[in-house]
Write a structure and sequence with these properties.
The chain is mainly β and 314 residues long. It has one domain. The strands form three sheets. It has a 16-stranded parallel beta sheet that branches. It has an eight-stranded parallel beta sheet with strand order 3-5-8-11-14-19-22-25. It is globular, with a radius of gyration of 22 Å.
Length: 314
């Protein structure tokens, strides 16, 4: 009898350990408040609405789920940085579901030149294991939608889009011009692994060029890759679409060509890639002439890629 009682008490304690935390709730106004009390196995449910902030997830086996339309926006930072809405760090078994994430905007550097600082990705992942389900992610201006380092990420029914690169411009005071910026990647993998099902990844458009003087023009930049990967890494796609970003327009530049389109998948020779029923498309060149369309896969696929359905751009 005492054994039965002990087993029941143990089971009850186990059930109690997995809590559901609501945002908002008493004493909880945002995701960071919820994460401060979350334990492994908990679920955080976020009510429909728009939220702004920067939250760091360090709890393993945690689920964060939107209830209805939930938008989490990052924070514009200083001259040196801005912050993503979610940063997953040293945590395995994390699930993000039914969320729209938007990267933080550019901060502004001091001084009369007002040169914008960097924006942030919509999701930063470091040394973690993460699954995204029914999520939409867009990088901040000129930034990747997702940036992952030393991690394994799974996408199911998701969309990840890099943002438009900065156009070249002439500051009021300072350098002759501030150069354009390449578009962000849909997903950038640094020593990381990607598994995706029924998802799309799109690079951002490159920044436009600009007239500076009769002797000088600021050149446009290239479109971002749909997926970028560094060694070591791997990519597995099932029923996915991957598209390189459109190159930057020549704009008012008197010289040079428009920006080149981004690669569908930009990796390294020998990048382990598997696919099934997926389409990889190189980005179109920017307007103004002279630019080149992006290749579907850069560099050219090696023998381990298998039978891709790849489409170039005219």
């Amino acid at each position: 009898m005492r054994h039965t009682w002990a087993i029941g008490l143990f089971m009850a304690a186990g059930l109690a350990a997995a809590a559901t935390i609501h945002v908002p709730d008493t004493g909880i106004s945002n995701l960071s408040d919820a994460l401060a009390i979350a334990q492994p196995g908990d679920t955080i449910l976020i009510a429909a609405g728009n939220y702004s902030g920067a939250a760091t997830v360090t709890v393993a086996n945690l689920t964060i789920e939107g209830q209805g339309d939930v938008l989490l926006a990052g924070v514009a930072g200083s001259c040196s940085s801005s912050l993503p809405p979610i940063h997953v760090e040293n945590a395995s078994g994390v699930v993000l579901r039914n969320l729209t994430l938007v990267g933080g905007g550019r901060g502004v550097c001091g001084g009369p030149s007002s040169i914008p600082g960097p924006a942030s990705s919509a999701l930063l992942v470091e040394n973690s294991g993460l699954t995204l389900d029914a999520c939409v992610l867009t990088g901040g201006p000129g930034s990747d939608a997702v940036h992952a380092t030393d991690s394994t990420i799974s996408f199911v029914d998701c969309t990840a889009t890099g943002n438009h690169g900065r156009d070249a411009f002439i500051p009021i005071i300072g350098p002759a011009f501030v150069p354009s910026q390449s578009g962000g990647a849909g997903v950038r993998l640094v020593s990381s692994h990607l598994d995706a099902f029924n998802s799309s990844f799109t690079g951002g458009k490159g920044g436009a060029g600009r007239f500076v003087s009769i002797l000088e023009s600021a050149m446009p930049s290239g479109g971002g890759p749909g997926i970028a990967a560094t060694d070591p890494g791997s990519v597995s796609l099932v029923d996915c679409e991957v598209t390189g970003g459109t190159g930057g327009d020549r704009g008012t530049a008197l010289y040079g060509a428009s920006g080149n389109g981004g690669c569908g998948v930009a990796g390294y020779m020998g990048l382990p890639v598997t696919q099934e029923s997926s389409i990889i498309v190189g980005g179109a060149a920017g307007e103004g002439g002279g630019g080149s369309a992006g290749e579907p896969i850069c560099p050219a696929p090696s023998s381990n890629v298998g039978d891709w359905l790849v489409l170039g751009r005219e």
